[in-house]
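Protocol step 6 of 9: fold each sequence in the batch and record its C-alpha cells directly after the sequence line. For illustration, a two-sequence batch is reproduced in full.

Sequence one:
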Amino acid sequence: MSDSRPSTYAPIEGVMERSLARVCGRITAIQVEPAGVAPTLTIRVQDDSGRIDAVFMGRRSIPGIEPGQRIGLEGRVSASDAAPLMYNPRYELLCRE
C-alpha cells in the first residue's frame, strides 16, 4: 500500500501517547455503534508504518468517510490496547489515487 505522504504528515508508527500528531493513510475499517447506544463512528487508518483509530463522538456517519479513502488526521494521541487512538480529530479527505 504505497501512499505518497505530504511532507507535513508523520508516519503513524512515530506517534506518541499524549502528543499532538498529524498523520495520513487509508481508511481500512469503519465501525458504527448501533441505535440505542451513544452515536460513535470509529475508523481505522493505516499507512505503510502502522495504524491508528479515530473516534468521532456524536456521529454515525461522515460524508466521504468510506473504506479505501485517503485521509489526513490531526489531534491528540491516546493509548489503547489495539492501536493508538485519536478522539474527534480534525480530518481532511485526500485525493484518491
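Sequence two, same batch, same settings:
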Amino acid sequence: MNLPKNSSTGNIPLEELRLITRAAWLYYIQGLTQTEVADELNCSRIKVTRLISRAKSLGIVDIRINQPPGFFVDLEHQLISQYNLRDAVVTLDVPNGEPLRRALARAAVEWLTPNLNGERVVGISMGRTLAHFPEMIEPGQKTGTTFIEVMGASDSVNSGFSSYAVISRMAQLYGGQARLLDVPTFVSNQSIRDLLMGEKQIAERFEIARSCDILMTSVGTVDEDALLHQIGYISEEILQQLQKQKAVGDLLGHFIDQKGRPVPSPLDGRLMAVQLEDLKRIPYSVLVSGGQNKIQAMKAALLGNYVNVLITDVTTAQKLLAQS
C-alpha cells in the first residue's frame, strides 16, 4: 500500500502512521471485519473505525469503482439527489429518433421486469417510445401482472404507438392480463366526457388506473413534432395558443409550463386520462424519455414532482443536471 504523493502524513508519528496503514491493509486488502482487525491490533473496534477513517482522509486509502461499460451510476445518483427521485437509469447515447426510442424502451423494460413481483398493476401511456416496449420483452413469462391504459386509446389503434396495442401485447408476453379503458383519448365535448366518466364500468377502470403500482409514461413537446399534433388531436391554432401560454410539454395530455405548473388547454374538458395529481400518488411513476427536444418538457415534469423514476440517456441526463 504505497502512500500517494499528495498524502499529508509528514507530521504524523511513524508508529501512528504504521498503525493506520496496517488497519487499512487488514480491512481493505485482507478483508477482515473491523472486529477482527481490532483483535489483530489488540485495540478496540471504535479505534479501528477511527484508524480506517483517518486512512481515507489522509489519502492512504483511495477507493475507486470501475464501472462496466454502459453503466453510469454516478449520473444516476446525481439525478436521484437533484430531483428527489426513487430511482434513475441512464443508458448509452445513441442517435436521436428511433434508435434512441428503442434504447430507452430496452432500458425501461430491463427496469420494469424485475419489479413485476406479486400481482402488480402497471399503467401504460401512449407514446412513440413506449410503443417499442413489447419488442424488448422476453416471451413466455408468467407474472400475473395487470396492464391498464392510463389514457384513452388513439383513434389510430393500428398506428403502432397506441397504448391499446402496446398493453395487449405486453400482457401476452408477460403472462398477465390487459385492461382497456374502452374510451377514446379525446371526446367531442365535456358533456360526453362527464357522461362517460359517470358510467360505472368506465369509472371502475379509471379507479384501477389511478391506483396502479407502476405507471410508465413519456413526455410530449409543444412543437410541430408533438405526438398529439402529429396525429391530429392538436390543431395549429391550439398549438400556437399553448405556446403563448408558455406550455413546454404534456403528460398524459395535460400541459405544463417550465416549472411543472398546469397550463389550461381547450382540450382539458374533452380528455379521458388519469389526472396530473394522480401521478404524485402512484408508488412508481416512471418517465421514459430523452433527446435534446425533450429536455425542457422533462425538466418540467421533474420539477412538478409528477414522476419519481427517470430513464434517459447520458447526454440528456448531463443537461438535466446542468440546469439546476
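Proceed to step 7 once all outputs are recorded. Observation for sequence two: The first helix runs from residue 14 to 29.
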